[in-house]
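User: Second chain of the day. Same drill as before.
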Amino acid sequence: MENTPLPDTLTVRRLLPGGGEVSITPLHGDGSSRSYYRVASEGSVFILQKGTNPKEDAAWLRINRHLRERGIRVPEVVGSDPENGLILMEDLGQESLFCLAKAAKSEEELETLYLPVLSLLVRMQTEGAMGFSAEVGFSEPYGFDLMVNMEGGYFCREFVSNLLGLEADEKVCGDIERLAREALKAPGGYFLHRDFQSRNIHFINDEWAVIDFQGARPGPPGYDVSALLLDPYANLPKRVREKLFSRYLGLLGEVENVDVEAVRESLFPLGVFRLMQALGAFGKLGGREGKRGFLEYASPALGILTGEFDERGGREFPALAGFVAEAKRRWEARSAKAVDKVIDYATE
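Assistant: Same format as last time:
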């Protein structure tokens, strides 16, 4: 962000209702190519998003409007400039679910914190599905090719191969394809955020708000709840995850025409694909793009992923389970060597 030029002040002023004087401060970005800034003007503070993909920016605006019309709290848009890729929106503050979860002092406090988020998720998935299609966003429905290539394959390429020097053989690729077919038995057609994790959920004015939804598409409900509860950032204790998964299924069961048992069966395969996607992103961002902070979450992600295979999928998908276990072993060895280097340097 330090080398990114600030947006033109006059352009930003035109996005404000009063067009007053502004100060613009760059913020740390997320894992995307977008840039973010905090804009202060006449006692008010806003967030400015600068995108690089006009289609994605337009999808963000359409999905924002779609969710707002269905009662889902999203940032209010103050103004936009499609030609320059700018969207000025309200500042939702610093209280992300991630920060609040890390501050929780007990498992009971975590459960209490997450319960209203689960209610929000069920509303978003069901009510957000009304009138929602790939045309509202700009992404195809969640399906086989995306799972195999952009989640399973992404993990194999960006994390395991590029960082650990381990290649996926035909048996591993075959297990990924079989796992995708298993996941696709789940009910579909729900609103799928596809990055519903603790950093993308904020608490403001006594309600929960959702951000970073531009990749939303129609899909199965089990994916987003897996993204939330198997989240490497928050790294919830296993007992808390289990209780919250059960509570989520109960909330979903209160919605008419939802096959809860089918959703329950989908949680393992969809959770695995979500974690492989996250690890692929950590590998790309922390490896090739040099954003090293993302790599600190690889260990919890691998721990959760191997735990999922140990409990539910190791026998049915042995090649992929073994591949993940070896990746975890190599990552731990790599991390141990890095620590040793730091200790050696410090004692010289």
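The chain has eleven helices and nine strands.

User: Great, on to the next one.
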